[in-house]
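Postdoc handover notes: sequence design on the structure in folder B. Input tokens:
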């Protein structure tokens, strides 16, 4: 009798295991995606972040969910990554929202606005200040979602072939610059051009560009801008931070098991933290090398920065006046920014100003 009961129980257990196996497979299916990036392989920062996302996703899912990253132009033109995601050519894409301002001006807030938010402030607005819901509404029109996946931190003002002494010096200047920044330069009389990172140096070398705004010393050194434009301007008031995003096709996202969705979000968060740390650690050594090689570090004059700020305000108001989606996001963004500036004036911003003023005193 005992033997019969044992065999019956064993058979039942074996049957349960057989039935459970398909359920486990359904919870952790093998999925393969492709992810084009807007950034070239030569940049271990932004392109490195794309590779980090794919590596972390694989680690977190025991290799069941694999994403293959492709550098700029390999399978999709660098400024058409969102298009590929929207139409389902690829399941996801690694890019920046402001590249698609021509399709939806409000997408610039997903990346950054001149005289805007620092990386910390941007993350606070997106994650705690209602920004993500507004951004989700914008990307819904492109059959996509957007997951934040890193920030460059404050960028430099750019490389110029000539010294920029007054706002009048921008008139007729052919400058590579993306997003809302291009409209601001246009207000100043410049001729902005949106060119992918991998194509900037040839344009500078041929003389079809007079200036370029890209990222900062570490990336700019790798792309060789100092060889053809010696004046390097700061501070980066026009781009206090640039947030990158992972766009995911909505149907592809909805087809992912929940645990894979969590893994993808976690991978983006980890890659993003590493990206900003890399820029903060490597920009200063790169700047020292550039100056040592002959780059001429310059500062924007107060007159130029005032003109830039005025032009930014005008551009924001013009877009808000003709685009209700832009106006809606701007209202939220402005209110959050006002509080962040107040907090900075009371606490960390005031502390940083003191530290800068007394840095020669040492500790």
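Designed sequence:
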């Amino acid at each position: 009798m005992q033997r019969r009961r044992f065999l019956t129980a064993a058979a039942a257990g074996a049957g349960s295991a057989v039935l459970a196996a398909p359920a486990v497979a359904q919870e952790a299916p093998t999925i393969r995606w492709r992810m084009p990036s807007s950034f070239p392989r030569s940049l271990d920062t932004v392109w490195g972040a794309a590779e980090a996302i794919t590596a972390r996703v694989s680690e977190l899912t025991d290799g069941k969910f694999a994403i293959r990253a492709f550098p700029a132009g390999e399978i999709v033109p660098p400024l058409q990554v969102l298009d590929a995601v929207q139409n389902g050519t690829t399941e996801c894409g690694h890019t920046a929202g402001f590249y698609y301002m021509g399709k939806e001006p409000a997408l610039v807030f997903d990346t950054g606005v001149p005289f805007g938010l620092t990386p910390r402030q941007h993350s606070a607005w997106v994650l705690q200040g209602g920004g993500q819901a507004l951004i989700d509404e914008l990307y819904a029109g492109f059959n996509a979602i957007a997951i934040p996946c890193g920030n460059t931190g404050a960028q430099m003002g750019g490389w110029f072939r000539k010294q920029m002494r007054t706002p009048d010096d921008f008139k007729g200047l052919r400058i590579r610059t993306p997003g809302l920044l291009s409209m601001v330069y246009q207000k100043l009389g410049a001729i902005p051009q949106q060119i992918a990172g991998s194509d900037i140096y040839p344009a500078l070398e041929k003389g079809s560009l007079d200036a370029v705004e890209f990222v900062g010393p570490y990336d700019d050194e790798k792309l060789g801008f100092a060889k053809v434009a010696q004046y390097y301007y700061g501070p980066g008031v026009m781009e206090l931070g640039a947030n990158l995003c992972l766009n995911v096709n909505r149907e592809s996202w909805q087809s992912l098991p929940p645990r894979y969705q969590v893994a993808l979000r976690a991978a983006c968060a980890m890659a993003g933290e590493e990206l900003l740390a890399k820029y903060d650690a490597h920009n200063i050594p790169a700047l020292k090398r550039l100056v040592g090689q002959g780059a001429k570090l310059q500062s924007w004059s107060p007159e130029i920065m005032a003109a830039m700020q005025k032009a930014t305000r005008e551009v924001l108001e013009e877009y808000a006046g003709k685009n209700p989606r832009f106006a809606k996001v701007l209202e939220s963004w402005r209110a959050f920014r006002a509080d962040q500036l107040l907090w900075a004036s009371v606490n960390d911003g005031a502390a940083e100003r003191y530290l800068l003023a007394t840095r020669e005193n040492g500790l």
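Context for whoever picks this up: Confidence is low (pLDDT under 50) at residues 1-21. Don't rerun without checking with the PI first.
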